[in-house]
Write a structure and sequence with these properties.
The protein has 161 residues and is mainly beta. Helices cover 0% and strands 67% of the residues. It is built from no helices and eleven strands. Strands 1, 2, 3, 4, 5, 6, 7, 8, 9, 10 and 11 form an eleven-stranded antiparallel beta sheet that branches. It is elongated, with a radius of gyration of 21 Å.
């Protein structure tokens, strides 16, 4: 529980775009944590990148004297995406999301490479492995011909369960 505010920025500086900044103040142990994270992206040639939640945190705990102890640490992003637009060669993109509350990963991919489409969707929860039989969430991958979607000879799906 804490305080949070989102500040819309909506600014472009060269190839980098800053959409918003989130500021949060939360209780952390016997102190507090102030974090600043951003939603941002960049476009360089045919490549587009995006991040959600990348930033820095300041942890404040009582010190031995009058001044508190301060420590700074990076905040990894909750999500990261990539897009590619190279007509005739490759196009598409993907996104990976991490839920910091549950530790769950999810992701999507949709890519056309030399006319062959590849797509995938996955969700993995903490502790899931094939050895523990806890790998209950399926990952599904598909492929198809982008130039001839009616051609069933180049269509398929791989399911990992």
């Amino acid at each position: 529980m804490g305080l949070a505010v989102t500040i819309p920025i909506d600014r472009q500086l060269g190839p980098v775009r800053l959409d918003s900044v989130d500021l949060t103040l939360t209780a952390a142990g016997d102190g507090a944590r102030l974090a600043a994270t951003a939603v941002a992206g960049a476009v360089v040639g045919p490549l587009a990148l995006s991040v959600d939640g990348l930033g820095v945190a300041l942890d404040i705990v009582p010190g031995n004297g009058l001044l508190p102890d301060l420590s700074v640490s990076p905040v990894p992003p909750r999500g990261a995406g990539v897009g590619l637009a190279a007509p005739g060669v490759a196009s598409g993109g993907g996104y990976l999301f991490l839920s910091p509350d549950t530790g769950e990963y999810s992701g999507v991919l949709d890519l056309a490479l030399l006319g062959v489409g590849i797509n995938a969707v996955g969700l993995i929860q903490p502790g899931q492995t094939k050895l523990t039989n806890a790998f209950s969430t399926a990952v599904s991958c598909g492929f198809h011909d982008h130039g001839d979607s009616a051609n069933t000879g180049l269509q398929g799906r791989i399911n990992i369960q």
